[in-house]
Amino acid sequence: MPEKAQKRGGPDAAPRSAGDVPAIELRGISKAFGPVQANRDIDLRVERGTIHGIIGENGAGKSTLMSILYGFYKPDSGEIWIGGKPVQITDSMTAIRSGIGMVFQHFKLVRNFTVLENIILGAEDGPMLRPSLARARGRLRELAQEYELNVDPDATIDELSVGHQQRVEILKALYRQADILILDEPTGVLTPAEADHLFRILNGLRDEGKTIILITHKLREIMEITDTVSVMRRGQMVASVATADTSPEELAELMVGRKVLLQVDKTPAAPGPTVLSVRDLRMRDEDRVERLRGISFDIRAGEIVGIAGVSGNGQTQLLELLGGFPEPGAKITGEVRVNGQMLDLSGRHSDAATRRARGIGHVPEDRQDEGLIMDFTAWENIAFGYHTAPEYRSGPFMDRAAIRADAEGKISRFDVRPPDPDLAARNFSGGNQQKIVVAREVERNPDLLLIGQPTRGVDIGAIEFIHKRIVELRDAGKAVLLVSVELDEIMALSDRILVMFDGMIMGERDPATVTAGELGLLMAGVTDPTQPAEAGIPPAQIQPADRSEDRLVKPEGMG
Ligand SMILES: Nc1ncnc2c1ncn2[C@@H]1O[C@H](COP(=O)(O)OP(=O)(O)OP(=O)(O)O)[C@@H](O)[C@H]1O
């Protein structure tokens, strides 16, 4: 019997007592949205005190299934059993009363309320009847200590880093006495160090007997932390296995229905003339905080330059500025040239359409806020930013038929599901929304592609596909600037790696020779591993990419 399964209490673990009933049992759950059968006759059994992973391609129906369990959607048919009893989960309050808590991809916190206020908000109807604030504070402190979930109860949500906001969501569920915790792609927004911390918390919760369901696209996380894993494909449950008995390759194949290349396949770059040249770029935001502090680099035709860094160190600002979305009120100095021509950096003129006319493609990091107009259809979104392109025009008017035909082609080549150009962007699953943005930008064959978090929330089949398209663009002699918090992605795709820390470039490394450890130190501001870090932290204690507090830290003397 595999040691891991034994240790973790998975299905192959030591026999349970006869009275043991599963924490969750779903029987024959089906749910359709119009013509889309999101869940089809799904059975699922999760044992108490285990971590169960759910994986599947974008649009496979994972979020729908969990939303049914949490009372967001009513299934068309099927039963939910919790702790051996059938329950009718009609809304999230019933789910909470049944001991179920959910941490969504997009947090549901009131941003200008404090942590404490958020935690007790709505709990008055739960098992903790009208708690006094003092009692709530005490309980919160206990929970925080018990589960390593430290967070300042009096901070407002706006002041917290993403990792801390997620802790508040978990605390909220625990405060409501959740025995079952569902997490939907919880590490998508976290740095590696934050993700490690989250996993320690989840391990602790499991040891306390809680049951955890983890939806993720990252097979590494499945292998590392889960006891059992279920695979969904096109609305159906195709397998449920003990993690110790499977492998990433097997899971990938189960998910996609074919073998998937888990590595990027590329030949060495053959760089040509300089496409992007950035000189002494500086930016102060409207609070006068210096976000970019003298950035200089070049990207040549036929190369991918990756920017590694903990989020919040200026990469987002750099990408947005180059893409024509400078922060409102920002003060920018420096020089940027594309194909030798100077770019106008003054906020007023640097709009995205002008950039695109100059051959710059841009996949923003935040696809929902900047990449798409969520209420517009897929075909309208595919024209977004390119509506003045000659092939989309018929005389002075937009040629709807031409745009739709083009959109249909992109949707088919990028395997966007469902392949419906008339569906509003918000009704596509997260990964399919991302494919729409990437299809729009990559297929324009830009001279310079600026691409942020290209595979966030995207399934492995689509990651393989998107990576291939990026490499093909490079091989066609285009320049690519890649920003990603996924070190694996940076190392696999880049021809050169630049590391950003505190608004500056700390150094350049060759992906063929650099180690993840060395990159991690540079990302923490350490250029010489024998010397203490800038912030005075001994190198040995620096976690690669720990940005838990970074959103709060402003460079000295600023803001
Ligand atoms: N409210 C809705 N209206 C119409 N269709 C929907 C709605 N919600 C989900 N769908 C469709 O149901 C299917 C399943 O979506 P779901 O979000 O459950 O997938 P997922 O496996 O969680 O995907 P991802 O990994 O991309 O988040 C998709 O085809 C999606 O477009």
From TrEMBL:
<dbReference type="InterPro" id="IPR017871">
    <property type="entry name" value="ABC_transporter-like_CS"/>
</dbReference>
<dbReference type="GO" id="GO:0016887">
    <property type="term" value="F:ATP hydrolysis activity"/>
</dbReference>
<keyword id="KW-0677">Repeat</keyword>
<keyword id="KW-1278">Translocase</keyword>
<keyword id="KW-1003">Cell membrane</keyword>
<feature type="compositionally biased region" description="Basic and acidic residues">
    <location>
        <begin position="546"/>
        <end position="559"/>
    </location>
</feature>
<dbReference type="GO" id="GO:0005886">
    <property type="term" value="C:plasma membrane"/>
</dbReference>
<keyword id="KW-0472">Membrane</keyword>
<feature type="domain" description="ABC transporter">
    <location>
        <begin position="276"/>
        <end position="527"/>
    </location>
</feature>
<feature type="domain" description="ABC transporter">
    <location>
        <begin position="24"/>
        <end position="259"/>
    </location>
</feature>
<keyword id="KW-0547">Nucleotide-binding</keyword>
<dbReference type="InterPro" id="IPR050107">
    <property type="entry name" value="ABC_carbohydrate_import_ATPase"/>
</dbReference>
<dbReference type="GO" id="GO:0005524">
    <property type="term" value="F:ATP binding"/>
</dbReference>
<keyword id="KW-0067">ATP-binding</keyword>
<feature type="region of interest" description="Disordered">
    <location>
        <begin position="530"/>
        <end position="559"/>
    </location>
</feature>
<dbReference type="InterPro" id="IPR003593">
    <property type="entry name" value="AAA+_ATPase"/>
</dbReference>
<dbReference type="InterPro" id="IPR003439">
    <property type="entry name" value="ABC_transporter-like_ATP-bd"/>
</dbReference>
<keyword id="KW-0762">Sugar transport</keyword>
<dbReference type="InterPro" id="IPR027417">
    <property type="entry name" value="P-loop_NTPase"/>
</dbReference>
<dbReference type="Pfam" id="PF00005">
    <property type="entry name" value="ABC_tran"/>
</dbReference>
<protein>
    <submittedName>
        <fullName>Heme ABC transporter ATP-binding protein</fullName>
    </submittedName>
</protein>
<keyword id="KW-0813">Transport</keyword>
